[in-house]
Amino acid sequence: MQKPWYTIEEKHKNKKLIVFDLDGTLTESKKEIDQEMALLLAKLLEKKEVAVVGGGKYELFQSQLLARLKVPESSLKKLFIFPTSASSFYSYVRGWKKVYSKELSEETRARIKKAFEEVFKEVNYKHPEKTYGEVIEDRGSQVTFSVFGQDLVKVLGKKGVEMKKEWRDKNTRLKLRLAKMLQKKLPDLEVRAAGYTSIDVTQKGIDKAYGLRQIKKHLGIKFSEMLFVGDALFKGGNDYAALKTGVECVAVKGPEEAKKIIKFLFFL
User: Fold this and answer.
1) Cα-based distances in Å from 115 to 4, 104, 146, 179, 206
2) Which has the closest alpha carbon to 128: 221, 52, 197, 39?
3) What are the C-alpha distances in Å from 162 to residues 125, 158, 165, 169?
4) Predicted TM-score (pTM) of this structure
5) Whether the Cβ atoms of residue 218 and residue 99 lie closer than 8 Å to each other
6) Which of 125, 132, 142, 191 has the fewest CB atoms within 10 Å, measured from its CB?
7) What local confidence, expressed as pLDDT, does residue 124 receive?
8) Is the Cβ–Cβ distance between 263 and 41 less than 8 Å?
9) Closest listed residue to residue 150, CA positions, set 222, 94, 199
């Protein structure tokens, strides 16, 4: 039986494609990748194909990742992005093109929002006095609840990230309880306690394992040729599903550790 934690090994340098989680791995929650990370990813793309999977919508991938990368088209063609928990996939062909999107029906999205409100009422959950942007955001292929609203980090920057971390440290059990109750109300859908303060709902079976299977299907890359890097490979974490595929995984505690992994991979 596989252990839930992995460290980087010499053999990993031979992997054809490196798959990264976004928030908590390449960058802090909802923040742009920093200059050093952008430079490291640019160097990695010279040697490897790279995929990034995260819960955010496509527009967040644009602002957090793509806008910060200064690389030639030849490198962009080797980068593949999977927003909204891999319920959508974009690749670069003379610009970023949508390969697929597993959209939820309008009726289903309304049902998810209703279920959230029912769960909040049942546990007597009180929203923070001040929120920033939508608390329950309809992303088309995913509906996401965010404790402080979707724009917290956009408005407050580093302070917003610290607020999310503080809430996570105090309320993870509550978030897991909300997710469990929501899953019972929505047995035909996939519910994940994601990020620091979020709960995501997508079509059934949409998770990091699904994303890895789509990479295999669309890019023709074997699981044995992939390496997954994420900050939530523990049981209950939103990267944990990656372990189900047999893809080798490396756990990190944040962007600084992810940078060390990238440097190791291209022999720095």
Assistant:
1) 32, 15, 15, 11, 19
2) 197
3) 21, 6, 5, 11
4) 0.86
5) yes
6) 125
7) 95
8) no
9) 199
Q: DSSP of 47-67, one letter per residue?
A: HSEEEEE-SS-HHHHHHHTGG
pLDDT of res. 4: 42
At 71 the pLDDT is 95
In order of start, what are the domains of the chain with their CATH numbers?
A: 10-102+206-265 (3.40.50.1000), 106-203 (3.30.1240.20)
Distance, C-alpha 56 to centroid of its chain: 7
> What is the predicted pLDDT for the residue at 238?
81
Q: Which residues of the chain register pLDDT less than 50? A: 1-4
* Residue in this structure with the two tokens 């709902």, named with its chain if needed: 201
- The whole-number pLDDT of residue 6 equals 67
Judge whether 265 and 16 are in contact, CB under 8 Å: no
The residues near 242 (Cβ < 8 Å, ≥ 6 apart) are 19, 208, 209, 212, 228, 230, 233, 249
Angle, helices 158-185 vs 106-122, to 10°: value is 100
